[in-house]
Structures are given as C-alpha cells and as structure tokens.
Known about the structure:
The protein has 321 residues and is of the alpha+beta class. The chain has helices spanning 22-29, 35-43, 117-124, 151-162, 241-248, 262-269, 308-318; strands at 9-12, 48-49, 52-53, 65-68, 88-92, 96-101, 132-133, 142-148, 167-175, 184-186, 188-193, 199-204, 215-223, 227-234, 284-292, 299-303. The chain folds into 3 domains: 9-68, Roll (Structural Genomics Hypothetical 15.5 Kd Protein In mrcA-pckA Intergenic Region, Chain A), CATH 3.10.290.10; 88-162, Pseudouridine synthase; 167-318, Pseudouridine synthase (2-Layer Sandwich). 29% of the residues are buried.
Amino acid sequence: MPEDRPQVKHLLVDEGGVGQRLDNFLLRQLKGVPKTHVYRVIRSGEVRINKGRAAADTRLALGDDVRLPPVRVAAKAVTAPAPAREFTVLCEDEHLLAIDKPAGVAVHGGSGVAFGVIEQLRQARPDARFLELVHRLDKETSGILLLAKKRSALTALQAQFRERETDKIYSALVIGHWPASLKVIDVALHKTLDAAGERQVRAVAADHPDGRRSISLVKLAQSFADHSLLEVTLKTGRTHQIRVHLANAGHPIVGDPKYGDFAVNKALARGQGLSGLRFERMFLHARHLAFDHPAGGQRVALQAALPAECVTLLARLSEPH
C-alpha cells in the first residue's frame, strides 16, 4: 500500500477543542482541504463523533472521538508569517481582550485570506500562552471584537453568546428612508455555501425546513435625504443577520459588497456624488457589547466610537444639497 494513500484517522478532543463547532474543528485539523469538501464529508456522514453522525454545528466535548475519513491534504505552501500587529484596546485583563477591529481586516485566515486579527495578535504577543476568538465579525464590519486569554474564559464567554446573554448593538447606514414603525425584524435565515465555498445567506419563510429564526431590533437614529442611520440590536446571532435582514426589508447597508446595491456602492467608492467624498467600506459598526465577566461575574459594557470615515460620511449627508 502506498505510504501517501490517505487513511482513516481518529482524534481525541482535548481541552483545546472543547466547545468548538465540528466544522471549525475540522477546518483547523484539515488545513489544505477545500472548505467545500470538509462540509461535504460532514453532510455525507463520513465524519463521526463517538461512532455517530454529527452536524456541522455540533459542539465538541472533552474526550469525544472524532473519526476523520480518508482525505488528501494538499502540500503546505511555504508562506510568510502574519505580520505582528496590535489593535486599539478597549478592555484587557488576565482573562480577556477586547479590541476595536478596523473594517477590511478578517478576524482569522482562511478562504483566500492569508491571515487575520488573531494571527497578527499572536505574532505581536509571542509570550501569550492562550489567545482565541470568542466570536466573529465579518471582514467588512468594524467594531468590538472579544478574545479570550484563558480556556476557562473562552468557554464561559462563548456560552453567554450561545445563550443570548450578551447585548450587541450595531450602527448601520442604509439606503432609503427606513420606516420608523418597523422596529422588529423576525425573519428566518438559511445559510448555504456557493460554488466557491463562500457563505451565502438568504431570508426564507418561517416554516422553511432549513431556516433558523432570526430576530433583529431596529431603531431609526437619524434620517437623511436618501439614507437612514440605524441602531440594530441582535437578539439572535446568525451569520450575516443584520446585512440580510436590512437588505430583505428593501434597505441594504451602504457599501455591502454581498447584499448591497452594487451600483450605488461603486459610485460612492469612486467619489461620485456627495461632493466627491469617497467611501470604500461597508457602513456596519459593532459599537456596543455587554457581557458578564467570565471570572468576576460583573457586567462589562464596552463602547467603540464610529470610525472617522463613517463620521465624515454622516457629516456630508447632513449638509444641505
């Protein structure tokens, strides 16, 4: 039998994998395997946990036996390490780190992205014994990103996110006049992967077999001639939830490259209109996050001010035309 023929493997989940989703665990274990193939073997039942089938969102427990089917891993390319980078710190102690993530920076490498926030922070902090993402923000979204500096803090904080015990508020600038009476969006969402393995989310009927109930609370903060500034509170934390909810309501987020108005985005990026102001990002900002401290239990409330380019755009929209 050729030595390079892939074999079935069994992995025992240690403390580093406790609480992780199965898909995220496999993507880290099978670096070099296309994301689409990883999800395919999960759906087919070839991946087993304790000899039973499991879904992509199954959470792993200590001591779980994860069976991996034979998969061929591409040879690792020699890549330069992520550049060391620190980010604006909003809160830090021995348990956690909260930063203000800029727009345009992925939270982690993968899907064509060589590195993200977590890789850059680990390079900048080589003595850190533990540093993991508690949650995710889209690459195009700016604002509060929470990381754990201890395994115990990671599991405690992720449990709060799963149980919806955190408070998350975003600022979003949308196209058009948002109806002030529309304060609750309760629309199910269905997440799929496109041919390139990228996430695609769409609104579906409440009784859709693959839909997941998703709730966003929306408050009209400021109205402009052709735009509306919204405050959106997440009651559920689905992938691309705010972006899809607002677009489905007929008011896409300014600069959204996936669900937005591409013609408007292109014109704004080129500086056409608004007195030549160029705006080349998505206007979605995680401005408020509240949670219970994983060690002390006290409520922690964090704020991240709107980035300068967003403040400038709002000022320009406020000018008489």
